[in-house]
Design brief:
The chain is an alpha/beta fold and about 300 residues long. The chain has a single domain, classed as Nitrilase/N-carbamoyl-D-aminoacid amidohydrolase, CATH 3.60.110. Helices cover about 25% and strands about 25% of the residues. The strands form three sheets. The protein has a six-stranded mixed beta sheet. It has a six-stranded mixed beta sheet with strand order 6-7-8-9-12-13, with helices on one face. Helix 1 links the parallel strand 1 and strand 2. Helix 1 packs parallel to helix 2 and helix 4 packs parallel to helix 5. The radius of gyration is 19 Å and the shape is globular. Bound molecules: 4-methylsulfanyl-2-ureido-butyric acid (CDT). The site of 4-methylsulfanyl-2-ureido-butyric acid (CDT) has 10 residues, from loops.
């Protein structure tokens, strides 16, 4: 008996600074309606789906950026999305900037079940970029200024009949992200991303290289942990800043099942049989039989590279 999850990777085109939450929610609902029409029962939206990618903007007074953050979820702006999902019986995941009652700031994503309840939360662990304004860069990437690193680890949840985990953007470049979830048997990783199409510190690294690194990371993570990965972009040009796009779904063999080739709002719907994760998990990546943890100590003992262990 296959265990099919029909997932919609719901890419958002650019969101300009001036666009309201209500406008964006309207776009997200339109994508949800389209995904439902195509048979999806689980829709995944990008990182920071409700706003422009605001960490590109430097603000001396951090509190002046709080208007980009959500103090409650759902709130009056997002409630219509939750209502529509519940009406359609659609599970969903999306990213947003979270401001907690204690005044903490996180880059967050959630899993919402088909009856509209938030059943899981993830806070981005690997924050890229820098804290202070850096005039040597072609553009700013201030996630380390506006967010603190996630404090919830990489759990995996029983969701939609399978084992589902979340990651956010830069997390997808780190093998540790997938392996921690792989060690919990993850069958589908969902993640959103906003990737500038030029490296701010190396202008020669443009769109083609950025998409190459994106696919390389996601395909390797999927294969090495025998899991599906659903990676959803915010794409196109936001106030003069171009984001890569490259929304895709990868199977447990590391192969791309589908990919969007445009930079607009759009859905990619793929039926994923979670039992396809079994073969890899029971053979080449049967962790219990093949891993040699006695040799992996440095992974958690060291953060940065240090002295070689050999002579
Ligand atoms: N949003 C996000 O994490 N973007 C990063 C950009 C890296 S360059 C600072 C990414 O990994 O795509």
């Amino acid at each position: 008996m296959p265990r099919i999850v029909t997932v919609a990777a719901a890419q958002l085109g650019p969101i300009q600074k001036a666009e309201s939450r209500a406008d964006v929610i309207g776009r997200m609902i339109a994508l949800m309606n389209e995904a439902h029409g195509k048979g999806a029962t689980f829709i995944v939206y990008p990182e920071l789906a409700l706003t422009t990618f605001f960490p590109r903007w430097y603000e001396e007074d951090r509190a002046a950026m709080d208007h980009w953050f959500e103090r409650a979820m759902p709130d009056s702006a997002t409630q219509p999305l939750f209502d529509r999902a519940k009406a359609l019986g659609m599970a969903m995941s999306f990213g947003y900037a979270e401001l907690t009652p204690e005044g903490r700031h996180f880059n967050t994503s959630i899993l919402v079940n088909r009856t509209g309840e938030i059943v899981a939360k993830y806070r981005k662990v690997h924050l890229p970029g820098h804290v202070d304004y850096d005039g040597t860069r072609s553009h700013q990437h201030l996630e380390k200024r506006y967010f603190e690193p996630g404090d919830l680890g990489f759990p995996v949840w029983n969701f939609e009949g399978g084992l589902v985990g979340m990651a956010i953007c830069n997390d997808r470049r780190w093998p540790e992200t997938y392996r921690v979830m792989g060690l919990q048997g993850v069958e589908m990783v969902v993640l959103g991303f906003n990737t500038p199409s030029v490296n701010s510190q190396r202008s020669g690294e443009g769109l083609a290289d950025r998409l190459f690194h994106h696919r390389l990371s996601v395909q390797a993570g999927a294969y090495q942990n025998s899991t599906f990965v659903v990676a959803v972009a915010k794409a196109g040009t936001e106030d003069g800043h171009h984001l890569t796009g490259g929304t895709l779904v990868v199977d447990p063999n590391g192969k791309i099942l589908g990919e969007l080739d445009h930079e607009n709002d759009g859905v990619l719907v793929v039926a994923c049989d979670l039992d396809d994760t079994r073969f890899g998990k029971e053979t080449i990546f049967d962790f219990a039989r093949h891993r040699r943890v006695e040799h992996y100590g440095l992974i958690t003992e060291r953060t940065g590279a240090g002295a070689p262990l050999g002579r």
